[in-house]
Design a protein that fits this description.
By secondary structure, the protein is mostly helical. 58% of the residues lie in helices and 0% in strands. It folds into 2 domains: 47 residues; 75 residues, Cytochrome Bc1 Complex, Chain D, domain 2, CATH 1.10.760. The N and C termini lie far apart (92 Å). It binds heme C. It comes from Marinagarivorans cellulosilyticus.
Length: 134
Amino acid sequence: MKLAVVSRGLVAAVAIISSVAVLADSELVQRIKPVGEVCMAGEACAAAVVEVAAGPRSGKDVYDTKCMACHASGVAGAPKFGDSVAWGDRVSAKGLGGLFDSAWNGINAMPPKGTCSDCTEDEIKSAIKYMSEG
Ligand code: HEC
C-alpha cells in the first residue's frame, strides 16, 4: 500500500517534470522571455549586433554627431558650418594649426574637443576642415 502511494507520487512527479520541459521550449516561453537578453561576443546572437565602425570617423561624421549642435546655428558666436567669411577670418588670424589648438583645448564657450571626448587629433582636424569648407 505504501509502495503504491510512493510510486503514484513518482509518476506524478515525472509527469510534472516532463511538462515543464515541454513548456521550456514552447512558443509561450519564447514570447515572454526578456527583450534585452545578454549576448556575448562570439555567440550566434552576437552576429546581429552592429559592429562599432573601426578606423577614424570622417569629418562629416564627427560634425554631424558632435559639432553640429553649436556650429549649425552659431550658438554663442560659433562660426557656422560653411560660412567661408567667418572661417576665413579665423584661418587667416591663426592658421589651421591655431584653430586646431583652440578646438582641442577649448576656447571661450567652445568646449575642449567640441564635446567629442573620444575624438583623435585627426578626427578633430577632419571635422574642422569639413565645417570650414562646407
Ligand atoms: C557647445 C557648443 C560647441 C560645440 C559642441 C562645438 N563648438 Fe566649436 N566653437 C563654439 C564656439 C562658441 C566657438 C567660438 C569661440 C570663440 O572664438 O569665442 C567655437 C569655435 C570653434 C573653432 C574656431 C576656434 C578659433 O580659434 O577660432 C573651431 C576650429 C571649432 N569651434 C571646432 C569645433 C569642432 C571640430 C567641434 C566638434 C568636434 C566643435 N567645434 C563643437 C562652440 C562649440
